[in-house]
Amino acid sequence: MRKIVKEIIENFYLVIIIFFLLLFKYITFTNLICGYLFYCVIVYLTTKTYLFCVKTPFNTGILENCPSIKNPNFKQYFFCPFTFAQFILLNISSKQNVSNHKKLYFEIEKVDDEGTALFWATNEQNNINHNLPVLFVMPGITGKVSDPYVKNIIGEGLLKNFDVVIFQMRTLSPEMKMPKEGYVDFCVDINNSLIKVRNKNKNKIFAIGYSFGANLLTTYLGSKNLETNYISGGISVSNPFDMFMCQRFGEDTIYESLIVFFERNNYLPAVNNMNKYLTDKNRMISIDYLLENFYIKHFDGEFFVKILGYRNGDDYYKGFSSAKYVKNINKPFLVISSKDDPISTYKGIPIDDICENENIILILTDKGAHSCYVENDKNFGFTPKQWMFKPAFEFLEFLRSNEKEM
């Protein structure tokens, strides 16, 4: 509780000062509103977006056909310029998107008997069109089809005529089991999932990963996809390229507490089931330890370290980071990250490797928080929407009709 109070004071000290000034009548409410709007204008006008890519004929074609990539210009929601406000606005925009789109239905397909699953999305029950290009969605570390940002991308994908399928990691399934031999390999799980997808749909597969899912996608593209060529192009959103650095920057923050809270709530059913099938007590995960610890490093050290076979937390963060695979990616890859991301720090982005790889385009924004990128609507009204869909689907539409020669 002490660290949360400390974080609130550090992030909202200006608001607290203004509150006390108002309390003692040093400033009027009207002056406060005018000052706040002036602050919003300054932040809005000074927010910038940056583009990084190698100039090649293929990338030139992307830029000429994708205006939101050629001239990226993300401006955060004007009336709430704070990073934390982006998370609240994301939930608001999700509810509006869900009400604007048709109702979502899902056809669940098991990939294996260990918990990995696919959720095929559709607007019409029992009517999935497998004759369209595939959008393979890889959510974050606790991401499910019910999460706001996942619903948003599903709705947009269906609207843009993609066969949308969501990859659910075994760690989110109450049926989770460890492999009969060795440890969990998420890249193997992804590959087995893509084989299932390919068996149903012979069209191009495009993948989009968020946060932890973006880290997995980057690792897969830089390793296994070099052999299989299942994925024709990908998009990374808010990728924690250097997980060791991200953990250090996120330590003792509100966001660390939130991640642990969601991990605990989502993973405990999987842990209970997995432990039942383990005969080696040293490999069992302690439920009591997960419940007692509020630091993400302690949680990951008990959970991910044991299921993935690392020595300790630092070994896991360093070994599981996707930054080292960036230079190997040989498919068109769009990276979208934010400088104010409190979870996936932009300081861990391997800028040099990205700028040397002609297959990668990086859009770096000043604002956007973690997988949010919420902006005003076109009329500058009070209806928030996610900006990242503009460059993302322009990129996908270009790849849909243009095959890059490797």
Can you lay out the helices and strands and say which pair or pack?
Elements: H1 2-23, H2 29-46, E1 49-53, H3 57-65, H4 67-70, H5 83-100, E2 105-110, E3 117-122, E4 134-138, H6 148-159, E5 163-168, H7 186-200, E6 205-210, H8 212-221, H9 225-228, E7 231-237, H10 243-250, H11 254-276, H12 287-292, H13 296-302, H14 304-308, H15 313-320, E8 333-338, H16 351-356, E9 360-365, E10 374-375, E11 385-386, H17 389-401
Parallel strand pairs: 4-5, 4-6, 6-7, 7-8, 8-9
Antiparallel strand pairs: 1-9, 2-3, 3-5, 10-11
| Arithmetic mean pLDDT | 88
Strand arrangement in the largest pleated sheet: 1-9-8-7-6-4-5-3-2
CA-based gyration radius: 22 Å
List the secondary-structure elements in sequence, H or E. HHEHHHEEEHEHEHHEHHHHHHEHEEEH
Report the principal-axis shape. globular
Number of helices: 17
**What proportion of the residues form beta strands (DSSP E)?**
5-15%
Structural description of this entry:
- This protein has 406 residues and is an alpha/beta fold.
- 46% of the residues lie in helices and 14% in strands.
- The chain is built from 17 helices and 11 strands.
- A 9-stranded mixed β-sheet has the order 1-9-8-7-6-4-5-3-2, sandwiched between helices. A two-stranded antiparallel ribbon has the order 10-11.
- Helix 16 links the parallel strand 8 and strand 9.
- Helix 5 packs across helix 6 and helix 10 packs across helix 15 (313-320).
- It is globular, with a radius of gyration of 22 Å.
- The mean pLDDT is 88.
